[in-house]
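Run log // design_07
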């Protein structure tokens, strides 16, 4: 093979490697950060709950109307049920285990597979109205700022996500985000088992257990002015703290605190009465460990695609170009020695 032909072959191979590096870094790597089509993950939580006994409340037995500090566990399953281009239809199911009871609650979202934010659903899907907001997951390389919003399914409202700094979980660097929600309950599944009214004598019997500001507002005159059946509304109050892996977006740790509070109106102002449900759970240590392992594995793949593979391809391309264009040293032409030339001349 001539030197010129060898240089052409090596240069062509180098160009191909540069193109492969670009495809790996700017096409394959971003596609690897999309929410996978086969996503199906279950995370386990443990904590405590307070549960309303509606029958006790209706009968006026306010002392036993709310059972507090009841140990609970919860399983959260997040599953992609279908994919439509860059849109994933995702089912997010939280099942709370309270003694022998299992209380499932399932919501369906349409998510952008890259940003993890709510997007327009396919025509065949009925989903929660979470357009533009996070609901079930954070994206990889999540921003360290307050730019995200969160959709709360209990109140069907969108709340700001506050970035509070960084931390370590399971040996991984995480961003810490805090979400606080306070809005009227709008989820029919939450409202359905709750009473819409309370007899006035029940409200009067609850006075010792009410918050000081509510007791102050329920003067004898105000209580007397209430209707015999006092109308109730419900307020949802939630606080979520999420520890999100900086590289992969996986929530390695999370604390969820949710409360539903019964309220009424006293002298045209809302007055909280009592919590009708309360739940505080944290991801179990076993689940946190598993999630840390998943983040480490996924992070290694992203590092390979974003850094190591493109760099290796570029270095190899540079070596090939160097070999192709570094001038080769010519072999010296061999001349016969003076002595042998002289002998040949004499013999001639």
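design_07 sequence
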């Amino acid at each position: 093979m001539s030197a010129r032909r060898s240089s052409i072959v090596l240069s062509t191979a180098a160009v191909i490697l540069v193109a492969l590096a670009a495809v790996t870094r700017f096409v394959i790597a971003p596609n690897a950060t999309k929410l996978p089509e086969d996503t199906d993950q279950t995370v386990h939580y443990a904590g405590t709950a307070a549960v309303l006994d509606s029958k006790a409340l209706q009968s006026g037995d306010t002392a036993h109307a709310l059972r507090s500090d009841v140990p609970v566990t919860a399983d959260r399953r997040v599953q992609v049920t279908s994919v439509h281009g860059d849109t994933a239809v995702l089912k997010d199911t939280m099942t709370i285990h309270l003694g022998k009871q299992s209380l499932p609650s399932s919501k369906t979202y349409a998510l952008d597979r890259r940003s993890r934010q709510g997007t327009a659903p396919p025509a065949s899907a009925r989903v929660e109205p979470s357009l533009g907001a996070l609901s079930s997951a954070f994206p990889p390389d999540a921003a360290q700022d307050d730019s995200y919003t969160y959709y709360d399914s209990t109140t069907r409202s969108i709340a700001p996500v506050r970035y509070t700094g960084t931390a370590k979980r399971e040996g991984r660097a995480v961003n810490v985000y805090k979400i606080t929600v306070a809005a009227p309950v709008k989820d029919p599944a939450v409202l359905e088992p709750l009473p819409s009214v309370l007899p006035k004598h029940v409200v009067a019997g609850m006075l010792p257990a009410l918050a000081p500001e509510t007791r102050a507002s329920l003067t004898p005159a105000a209580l007397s002015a209430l209707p015999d059946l006092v109308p109730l509304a419900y307020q949802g109050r939630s606080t979520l703290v999420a520890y999100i892996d900086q590289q992969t977006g996986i929530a390695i740790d999370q604390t969820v605190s949710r409360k539903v509070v019964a309220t009424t109106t006293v002298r045209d102002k809302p007055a909280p009465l009592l919590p009708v449900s309360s739940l505080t759970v944290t991801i179990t240590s076993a689940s946190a460990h598993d999630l840390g392992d998943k983040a480490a594995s996924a992070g290694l793949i992203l590092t390979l695609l974003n850094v190591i593979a493109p760099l290796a391809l570029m270095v190899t391309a540079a070596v090939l170009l160097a070999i192709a264009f570094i001038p080769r040293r010519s072999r010296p032409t061999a001349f016969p020695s003076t002595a042998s030339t002289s002998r040949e001349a004499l013999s001639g």
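The mean pLDDT is 87.
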